[in-house]
Amino acid sequence: MAQIIVPSNIFLTLIIVAAAVAGSVEAQSPSTSDVSVADIVTPEFFNGIIGQADASCVGKNFYSRATFLEALKSYDQFSKIGSIDDSKREIAAFFAHVTHETFHFCYIEEIDGPSKDYCDESNTQYPCKPNKGYYGRGPIQLSWNPNYGRAGESIGFDGLNSPETVANDPVISFKTALWYWMNSVRPVIGEGFGATIRAINGALECDGGNPATVQKRVEYFTEYCNQLGIAPGDNLTC
Predict the structure, then answer these.
(1) 154: number of CA atoms within 13 Å, CB side?
(2) Nearest to 155 by CA among 178, 136, 132, 137
């Protein structure tokens, strides 16, 4: 088919108009660079989670929205992914897992953690230290000596010699959760919420390991998606 030849002056006019329209559309289209996590994780949203923890919970005097936002300053790419709805889904996913791991911010440390062995003796780069436990601590329940070692190097604390720092410093505690999220969970978030479950506790819960806990995580996720006015998407389970 022969092409229609457009006179140069008309062609130039079309280019100018097209550019103006494109610029207008670009200016009006929301992007993740405009997302403010603080505007999404409002006091009402955060308090709606921690408010469900019993008054006797140690986490109620440890975790706070302020310390989360302070920790977030070191991870400014958190929630900066895809569309605004994608950003909100990431936030909903993060807090769904945190809610499950800490029981609405009730727990700082894993129940009966000191009695459990989380020492990977085969890892010589981050060897376990005497009388130190690498059980779950913090919002995402950081576990195992390699994770404590790597998180400590990245954040700036001695994760191997002082793993208890994660249970004593609320900002560092949230930083470990965000560190783990950005390194181990963010890479698979586009595959659906189910992939994030697998990245956090797949060995114990996925593929029929513990369907009840998988379902509980999904319930929290869909609840938070509803609060944020977005669809949860596909592939919710593992």
Answers:
(1) 18
(2) 178
Q: Is 101 a catalytic residue?
A: yes
CB 97 within 8 A of CB 75: no
Helix (H, G, I), strand (E, B) or coil at 44: helix
Q: What HEC string does 157-207 produce?
A: CCCCCCCCHHHHCHHHHHHHHHHHHHHHHHHHHHHCHHHHHHHHHHHHHCC
- This prediction has a pTM of 0.86
For residue 157, count other CB atoms closer than 10 A to its CB: 19
Residue from 101, 109, 110, 205 carrying the catalytic annotation: 101
Measured CA to CA, the distance from residue 27 to residue 30 in angstroms comes to 8
State the CB neighbour count (10 A cutoff) for residue 110. 21
Cβ neighbours of residue 180 closer than 8 Å, sequence gap 6 or more: 140, 142, 147, 151
82-96 tens-digit pLDDT: 999 999 999 999 999
Q: Give the tens place of pLDDT for each residue, 157-207.
A: 999 999 999 999 999 999 999 999 999 999 999 999 999 999 999 999 999
Query: Would you call 109 helix, strand, or coil by DSSP?
Result: strand
- Nearest-CA neighbor of 180 among 160, 157, 150? 150
